[in-house]
Design goal:
The protein is mainly alpha-helical. Bound molecules: iron/sulfur cluster (SF4) (2 copies). The site of one iron/sulfur cluster has 13 residues, from α6 and α7.
């Protein structure tokens, strides 16, 4: 078995993480950086330094929105969202519980609705998340404001080809 860095680089199968020279352009443009316990370039540094356990327990790897702003800004085209996807899988495989458990529960709620209907259904996703976390009244005010502004829809259309969605989920599921 290789080092943590070698393992991650092998799975990225693209630009080597050692190409990062920590200019921090990724972190300064990341819309989620303020909420992360480790900034995008710090995540790379931790992979380089072999800080596997600490990183796999972090909330940062679950807060990334996969927006790809960091890749666009990076002078070396380091694929941070790809790296973060790999770290998420490693975290789940290792059965690691992140410091902020609610982040995982949000991901599970989101993917659950996509699996059922092919698209995210916001009311079902929120209800599932609230049941999982017991945070029934948290963010009610924000949710209500979003609803009034038309940012939350009560109904979402289902994807026509739901068989294809099921195939995607079953082909990526671990046996
Ligand atoms: S922008 Fe690229 S080179 Fe600069 S710190 Fe981020 S990943 Fe590293
Ligand atoms: S892909 Fe993730 S790490 Fe990169 S800028 Fe977007 S939220 Fe930040």
């Amino acid at each position: 078995m290789g080092s943590f860095l070698e393992d991650v680089n092998k799975q990225i199968n693209g630009v080597d993480l050692q190409n990062c020279y920590h200019c921090q352009k990724c972190s300064s443009g990341c819309p989620m950086a303020a909420a992360m316990d480790f900034k995008p370039n710090e995540i790379i540094r931790m992979v380089q330094m072999g800080q596997r356990d600490l990183l796999l327990r972090s909330s940062a790897i679950w807060l990334c929105a996969s927006c790809e702003t960091c890749v666009t800004r990076c002078p070396n085209a380091v694929d941070i969202p790809r790296m973060i996807d790999i770290l998420r899988v490693m975290s789940l495989d290792a059965g690691v519980v992140p410091h902020d458990r609610e982040v995982i529960q949000f991901h599970e709620s989101f993917l659950g609705t996509v699996k059922r209907g092919g698209r995210v259904n916001e009311p079902i996703m929120i209800a599932t998340y609230k049941l999982k976390t017991g945070t029934y009244l948290k963010d009610v005010g924000v949710g209500f404001k979003m609803f009034l502004k038309g940012k939350l829809s009560l109904f979402s259309p289902r994807t026509k080809n739901r068989k294809a969605i099921r195939r995607i989920f079953s082909s990526t599921a671990k046996s």
